[in-house]
Amino acid sequence: MKVLMFGWEFPPHVFGGLATANFGITEGLHAQGDMDITLCLPRPFGDEDQRSAHILAMNCVPIVWRDVNYDYVQSRIGHLMNPDLYYQLRDHLYADFNYMHVNDLGCMEFAGGYPSNLHEEINNYSIIAGVVARQQDFDIIHAHDWLTFPAGIHAKQVSGKPLVIHVHATDFDRSRGNVNPTVYSIEKNGMDHADCIMCVSELTRQTVINHYHQDPAKCFAMHNAVYPLAPELQAIVDQRKPSSERKEKVVTFLGRITMQKGPEYFIEAAKRVLDRTRNIRFCFAGSGDMMNAMIEMAAAYGIADRCHFPGFMKGKQVFECFRDSDVYVMPSVSEPFGISPLEAMQSGVPTIISKQSGCAEILDKCIKTDYWDIDAMADAMYSLCTNPGFHEYLQVEGKKEVDGITWEKVGQRIRRLYDETIEKCK
């Protein structure tokens, strides 16, 4: 089976959980043995792992050349496309041709990542998707998150092939309900055009059904997983000192310091723990628009000397952080899934997660609290830091549980949905 997949980020260049999930999904599908995946990215760096998917750089797809007066236009994709067809491509997304960033080679330019002109790049990406869909041979389209939904729609309209969209998060999660109407419109349009909607949790599936008014019959929960640690990462984790030998315990929050992730609840719980003992430190491993507010909040509570803000972590830094942590906490207000708790448990770190997270649906060997229940969260932190037996139990059993949650199993479920969707759309 041939899959045309649209993504936005991919390891080793990780901006968030989307890159990790995209890698895991391609790995899981590739393990099926008969999957041929072309993964489109706006601007790859060239060092991405292509063993499970052929990466197509959208910034290297020749799309158009024009004279200095913009009067004569022809698309160039190995053969000439007549001007009328080009203008259909352009007008499909109401793009102003004069403002497209097309270089001298006829390729669209992308900043990569999440630049200030993100919506413009999403639009341009979708234009190129129409060119790619005419070039590639594929059976099904798979678009990841709202950034690529317009591209998926365009590829479907050009090719007539079925469209699967993968909802890793919605704007309801990111904004605590204060949705951006433009983003909501893009998300809903993608869902309306999709033949199958994969959601990273039942929590997200219900959001899609209730807030985006989608048919439950085409919406499926597709939980994420974790892949085995690479030898160099396992070597880092293996350097961990036994918790009993640590004079001070470390409780870690790792993720974006934003409204969605509930960092203020972590600070509140830390204050309650430090009212009972002072031999615990709290690490905010991440960055975000609430970082300064959290530093000020820690200072106002008189616990700034116990709180550390090392900044954004990536790659091996994440696992160095886990190695030095005794407890991991994810107090998210609304978390569609949340891969980091799985990585923490895989690294042998007992974990506390909010009940308002998708991963809570598949994890049992961890502690679950409501994000707003500060006392319960603080009690859990304190217990894991002061009760060696309890800590060891969750350390061992948590790792054992997560080791059984594999991307290969996810790939098998996705493959079944591909088959069903293709059959349904015949």
Polypeptide structure, described:
- This protein has two domains: about 1-225 and about 405-425, Rossmann fold (3-Layer(aba) Sandwich); about 230-405, Rossmann fold.
- Mean pLDDT is about 90; it is low at about 65-85 and about 85-100.
- It is globular and about 65 Å long.
- It is an alpha/beta fold and about 425 residues long.
- The chain has helices spanning about 15-30, 85-90, 120-135, 145-160, 170-175, 180-195, 200-210, 230-235, 265-275, 290-300, 315-325, 340-345, 375-385, 390-405, 405-425; strands spanning about 1-5, 35-40, 55, 65, 75, 80, 140-145, 165, 195-200, 220, 250-255, 280-285, 305-310, 325-330, 350-355, 365-370.
- A seven-stranded parallel beta sheet has the order 3-2-1-7-8-9-10, sandwiched between helices. The protein has a six-stranded parallel beta sheet with strand order 13-12-11-14-15-16, sandwiched between helices.
Features:
426 residues; Rossmann fold; 7-stranded parallel beta sheet; 6-stranded parallel beta sheet; 15 helices; 16 strands; globular
